[in-house]
Specification:
8 copies of one chain form a homooctamer.
Chain A lengths: L3 E7 L5 H11 L4 E4 L5 H12 L5 H22 L2 E5 L7 H12 L3 E5 L9 H5 L3 E3 L2 H13 L3
Parallel strand pairs in A: 1-2, 1-3, 3-4, 4-5
Chain lengths: 150, 150, 150, 150, 150, 150, 150, 150
Amino acid sequence: MKQWNVYLSGEIHSDWREQIKKQVSSQNLPIVFTSPVTDHELSDDCGLKILGSENDKFWHDHKGAKINTIRTKIAIKNADIVIVRFGDKYKQWNAAFDAGFATALNKSLIIMHNDDHQHALKEVDAAALAVTKNVEEVVNILKYTIDGKL
Amino acid sequence: MKQWNVYLSGEIHSDWREQIKKQVSSQNLPIVFTSPVTDHELSDDCGLKILGSENDKFWHDHKGAKINTIRTKIAIKNADIVIVRFGDKYKQWNAAFDAGFATALNKSLIIMHNDDHQHALKEVDAAALAVTKNVEEVVNILKYTIDGKL
Amino acid sequence: MKQWNVYLSGEIHSDWREQIKKQVSSQNLPIVFTSPVTDHELSDDCGLKILGSENDKFWHDHKGAKINTIRTKIAIKNADIVIVRFGDKYKQWNAAFDAGFATALNKSLIIMHNDDHQHALKEVDAAALAVTKNVEEVVNILKYTIDGKL
Amino acid sequence: MKQWNVYLSGEIHSDWREQIKKQVSSQNLPIVFTSPVTDHELSDDCGLKILGSENDKFWHDHKGAKINTIRTKIAIKNADIVIVRFGDKYKQWNAAFDAGFATALNKSLIIMHNDDHQHALKEVDAAALAVTKNVEEVVNILKYTIDGKL
Amino acid sequence: MKQWNVYLSGEIHSDWREQIKKQVSSQNLPIVFTSPVTDHELSDDCGLKILGSENDKFWHDHKGAKINTIRTKIAIKNADIVIVRFGDKYKQWNAAFDAGFATALNKSLIIMHNDDHQHALKEVDAAALAVTKNVEEVVNILKYTIDGKL
Amino acid sequence: MKQWNVYLSGEIHSDWREQIKKQVSSQNLPIVFTSPVTDHELSDDCGLKILGSENDKFWHDHKGAKINTIRTKIAIKNADIVIVRFGDKYKQWNAAFDAGFATALNKSLIIMHNDDHQHALKEVDAAALAVTKNVEEVVNILKYTIDGKL
Amino acid sequence: MKQWNVYLSGEIHSDWREQIKKQVSSQNLPIVFTSPVTDHELSDDCGLKILGSENDKFWHDHKGAKINTIRTKIAIKNADIVIVRFGDKYKQWNAAFDAGFATALNKSLIIMHNDDHQHALKEVDAAALAVTKNVEEVVNILKYTIDGKL
Amino acid sequence: MKQWNVYLSGEIHSDWREQIKKQVSSQNLPIVFTSPVTDHELSDDCGLKILGSENDKFWHDHKGAKINTIRTKIAIKNADIVIVRFGDKYKQWNAAFDAGFATALNKSLIIMHNDDHQHALKEVDAAALAVTKNVEEVVNILKYTIDGKL
């Protein structure tokens, strides 16, 4: 049976990825999920820890961001579906960047956010094939897309 | 003489585009600038004004955002250089989306923002060929890139 | 042994897909078939059922059509061969859309229709590598293409 | 000033193209329009007239459709914007084919049709950046896209 | 007015290119024609004359063929339409190579040959949008494609 | 272990494919070979046998050539290496077409022919990464490429 | 579990590839490594040994370099990550060529070199997602990228 | 008349670009030349001068190299022909990088170097359509390619 590759981009401060995986698993959907590194501290400091410290915060972040890009670029390029969740906190510009990157690669894009962000995300939503509010909607779309039933 | 196409994405609440154009003009650089529609109200309501009103705010925004995409997608695809400015206000997710879209199309990307946004923009900065803080730096890069001197 | 990916687009009101699968199975051809969701009612209402109701029929259909696109776009992009059948009923513009989409992606295209539609489908037929009238012809082409014999 | 390339696909039995051109001209928009050959009889018989007659109607149409494809494929590939109008008559599968072809090439797509066709065109509409009902809406979108005002 | 780029590949031992150019000129069609170097001796010896002699005939030909490829690859990549003529003499494998190269780049392909070569060219003809027998047919296709009338 | 996909294009009137497969098998190289249909009569008549007869030889051949293209286009697109052999008989324009098609798709191309065809094939040879004279050379290249030793 | 394809380009006179493979193996990372032929003498003489000798050193090298390209081009095209090491000896232009080739194909690029080469490699480093000094750093990046932890 | 875009990459410590331009000008060839910034000191320090100083030499070079990439990436993407000259001094890895980048974009590549570098450049030469030793050979190739005569 074909395996579907789904990349889970965006918010790393809630357990939405685990919820999706749990529900998908209980439905026996043949999905391989990928995601960015979701350990916030490690993600911020991977450059320092692997390649050494920098005096300048910009270069500290630059090295880490590029190392993280190795994983995320490959994951998006290999994905059938890219799901991007915008949470309540932080600027989350990397999530919007991923959505733009996935759009230019003609990936099937699903966006998750609550109503508070609706207006600010209108351009991102306009590029998506579905705009969802919660995990249940996402899982139902995955089930419907893969199984053809609900 | 070759004309360079430069797309100016992002913040629409300051006059940074006009400043760039003015300085570029005084330097006689052969650049054709494009930009999104920068009239905020019109940009928000173009869907309503052209295609009629919607009861639901989501669809109101959706129609408008898609119409705006006609202009922005063509501009980015035709651009040699994409400059994205992150200002002080709003979420500006469309700016980050444009940066991701331009990156996947292998455009030369220049980012503008002040130090406050440095950490939050690290993934976007990591995709750029230059990270700048003000109009002077941008214009100097354009001059250096086109004329080969400063 | 290599598996061939074949997408079956178009008419959903007859059992042509099942006939093809049955004959292909009896010939032991290594084909994985994909298709749009062929439950007409569910396909029309998937947006409503997953993401909630809309007052406006246009947006009702819009949400559903986009969700269906997640499945169909991935299937066509992954297909080696795209088979599009035009039946007797309905406008079937989505079938012609799929044929155009597949052509631009340089997929091997096979069209099925009876003689009544010949003139109206001439531009679509002109993009195809085979124009067929029934399941037997399609299966013979698949057998010949994969096995190299009849 | 940049010239915009706009391809006008679809219905050839009303004067919608001339109306668009007239209004665009009065607005001084820098657009170069392209279109399929709109002389219905000539379009049907170009194969016969240029390459000689065929006994079989299928090949008669096949030769003509391929010659017409030379013009339409080049026009769509060179277009910034593709506008596809579905009229009241005929199957118009070539119009839907063009919409699919343009979508896979990532063109900015605008669809025109009246309410009668709304449900049947939902998949095509879902790929568009604007769904319009008349010439005025199309021209306003072109004006807004090019001039950034209404 | 738009200029059309047409590449004339294949036979270099008759004056078919000049005939096409003459007829196209008298019809005022806005076409820029490109072609390989048609001076047979110079084409064979350009490697020798520019880069020096080789003892081995294979490398003599290799150097020349590569230099000729600079011109032909650029011309085909820039062409809207590629016309390939197969004459009566020689193997003309470079002509068939050009047809395959142009096909993979999704160019609009027109083939010219007389009936003697029909069976041997069936695969090449199958990739073409028109198969013609003489200059008049080619010019009529160009006129019809560009002007939309005959 | 990775499997290598190698397409064997060209001459169908000698047993060169079987020789290559036999030697490759004895070397335990992990190669999956694909090829066009090498039953000459069936290849010529597949259109007739599957889709019915034609009065006109051109269309007889056209239908068959297009059906054969389904197999060959998929095989070349999926190939890592394309090997094209030019034999002593026939025009073999389809072989040169395949070489051009593979070149535009940036495949690794190996050509086989004897010295008699050297000058006529110079443009085709110029696009190849190796020009070989016999099965032994081809197999050694495959072994060296895959195993990194001889 | 997904397998990652990593191409190891560059220096062939130290055992850095074996060190990476050994450490990766002890970490149980699911990586398939590819590399150029690292037997220097065989790599230089493969053209001669397979296709026969040449009097001219240029053509001797040319034949060999092209045969080596069959392997390296396929490996880079199939790679998720391309690692290029610049050692202390030789010009290593092929390593820099591989880095440029991989960059244009949008591969994730990691560069290895010691401080002596820092200035001379600045353009190559600027295209990389990580610039490393030793095997440990490379392996940590691979581990972090694949496992998401250190 | 068509203008040809030729990018002159590589050595910046001799006047080879000026010699080519002078000879091309005297031959009236319609070529627009582009090149990297050839002021060595300015090229090294552009990052510092535009974006401010860095304590760390690596980041000093990194900023400058990326700014230079804006110009060089655009120039190579827009070029019909890329000419890369390897001189006597320095490592010139950026030149080899450009050659690899241009090759992956399927540009027509011409290499210039003297005999001393022949063996070390064999992989780069193997990707080129011509390997030249001096300005005269380059200009003759340009003249032959554009004018079709010598």
